[in-house]
Amino acid sequence: MKFVKNHNMTKDVAKATIERLVSSLMQQFGGRVTDTRYAWHADVMQFSGRKAVFNVAGTLEVNDAELILDMDGIPFFAAGKVRSGIERWFDGNWPP
């Protein structure tokens, strides 16, 4: 599942904003994500967590103009709900 969002700020400001909002973004998985982990590798955040019996993992890349969120592990029957929840989160929180 892939999302692309324009950020209209410098990479450093976008990364700092993501860092501040990452816990809120993780809550889009229903608030019951466990074993959450994330780490920056240059301009790419790698993240993972567990929701019920599913492992969710992905990356959030920050380039000069966009945020590119790419996730794996979302079961097909939940993909629509997850997609709409993340889109609503971005619409309501980005840019802050």
What would the keywords be for this entry?
TATA-Binding Protein, 5 strands, 32% helix, single chain, five-stranded antiparallel sheet, 96 residues, globular, alpha+beta
**Beta-strand percentage range:** 35-45%
CATH class reads: Alpha Beta
Number of helical segments with 4 or more residues: 2
Helix content: 25-40%
CATH topology name, in short, is TATA-Binding Protein
**Architecture per CATH nomenclature, i.e. the level-2 architecture:** 2-Layer Sandwich
Strands, total number? 5
Strand line-up in the sheet with most strands:
1-5-4-3-2
Q: Which structural class should the secondary elements be placed in?
A: alpha+beta
Low-confidence stretches: none
End-to-end C-alpha gap: 23 Å
Largest sheet: 5 strands, antiparallel
- Please tell me how large the radius of gyration is: 13 Å
Number of domain units: 1
Chain-averaged pLDDT? 84
Write the element-wise H/E pattern from the N-terminal end onward: EHEEEEH
